[in-house]
Design the sequence.
């Protein structure tokens, strides 16, 4: 009897193991399908998409993203059918990109934005402040006073004409802000949008009369710079390396990212222009594969956190940005206090301004 019971128990155990094995074979795997997409982006977002944590976060959501860079205002000139999405630095180029890609009316998304700032060497910032062109709120932060600055630019004032500049041998030549090419680069174009607003009596330039009225000053702002860079990345890196001009136009995101990496130069001062055009980075889906990617970048908590780490402000994310950059408050203005935010002209007007600023064209 004992032997019979042992045999029966063995059979039952073997049957149980077999059943588990069979059940295991019937259970399907649930691996996430990966979609490969290719996009054209502004250079200021390159490090974000190269970040291994961003790559992993996107992979966890089923995306492998490959990117190429271009000036935001030049994207509509590309062979856009080769891309699944375009991601310019603001909303203004988006309609042109949609039309060129044949996806007019696409569901665009604005996952994050970044205001423009002027980064300055501490000596340059001090001279500007001492001469009423800027107002410092601390050792590393302040406001660029656009009215007085543009008056100095209109007069082609040199550093040597500013009180106190003689103490700093590096401050020579005409006072100007190094920008990018306003005909192709978003930051350069939006700089003209803001400066033309101030020059036009605090009104958006909207017609030929406004172009004619502001174009001479816009040309002075651009012509003094010499060769123009196609993107913000090159002049920004030159400044950080210790070379370049004493005043550089940049995105706040570039500065905030650098601060969080603890790589900012000790003599860097961040000046927020008192009149600015915010830059909502706008995701334009071109193929069906990228249709949901823009919304994912805007809403996924992990990707929002990573965007802040790279200095961007998520939509409705003032609290997120402020918390992440709290230890660098000496440089930044999280609430954009005291900054007048204005609208950009239409694409047609802004490109006419850019052409006139570069000494080209006469009509919008």
Sequence:
């Amino acid at each position: 009897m004992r032997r019979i019971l042992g045999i029966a128990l063995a059979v039952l155990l073997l049957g149980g193991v077999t059943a588990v094995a069979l059940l295991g074979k019937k259970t399907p795997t649930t691996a996430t399908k990966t979609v490969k997409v290719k996009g054209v982006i502004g250079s200021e977002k390159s490090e974000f998409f190269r970040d291994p944590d961003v790559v992993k976060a996107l992979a966890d959501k089923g995306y492998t993203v490959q990117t190429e860079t271009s000036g935001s205002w030049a994207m509509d000139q590309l062979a856009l059918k080769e891309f699944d999405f375009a991601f310019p630095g603001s909303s203004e180029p988006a309609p042109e990109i949609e039309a060129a890609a044949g996806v007019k009316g696409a569901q665009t998304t604005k996952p994050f934005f970044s205001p423009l700032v002027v980064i300055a060497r501490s000596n340059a910032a001090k001279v500007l402040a001492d001469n009423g062109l800027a107002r410092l709120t601390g050792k590393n932060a302040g406001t660029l006073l656009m009215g007085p600055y543009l008056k100095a630019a209109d007069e082609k004032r040199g550093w040597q004409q500013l009180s106190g500049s003689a103490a700093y041998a590096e401050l020579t030549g005409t006072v100007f802000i190094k920008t990018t090419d306003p005909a192709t680069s978003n930051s350069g174009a939006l700089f003209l949008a803001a400066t033309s607003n101030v020059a036009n009596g605090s009104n958006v330039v909207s017609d030929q009369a406004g172009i004619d009225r502001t174009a001479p000053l816009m040309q002075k702002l651009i012509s003094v710079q010499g060769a123009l860079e196609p993107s913000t990345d090159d002049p920004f890196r030159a400044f950080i390396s210790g070379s370049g001009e004493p005043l550089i136009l940049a995105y706040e995101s570039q500065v905030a990212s650098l601060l969080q990496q603890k790589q900012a130069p000790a003599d860097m001062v961040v000046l927020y222009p008192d009149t600015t055009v915010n830059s909502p980075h706008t995701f334009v889906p071109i193929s069906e594969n990228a249709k949901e990617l823009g919304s994912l970048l805007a809403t996924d908590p992990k990707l929002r956190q990573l965007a802040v780490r790279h200095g961007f402000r998520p939509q409705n994310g003032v609290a997120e940005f402020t918390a992440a950059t709290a230890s660098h408050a000496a440089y930044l203005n999280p609430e954009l206090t005291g900054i007048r935010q204005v609208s950009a002209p239409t694409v047609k007007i802004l490109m006419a301004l850019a052409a006139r600023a570069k000494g080209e064209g006469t009509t919008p």
User: Anything to note?
Assistant: The longest strand covers residues 35-41.
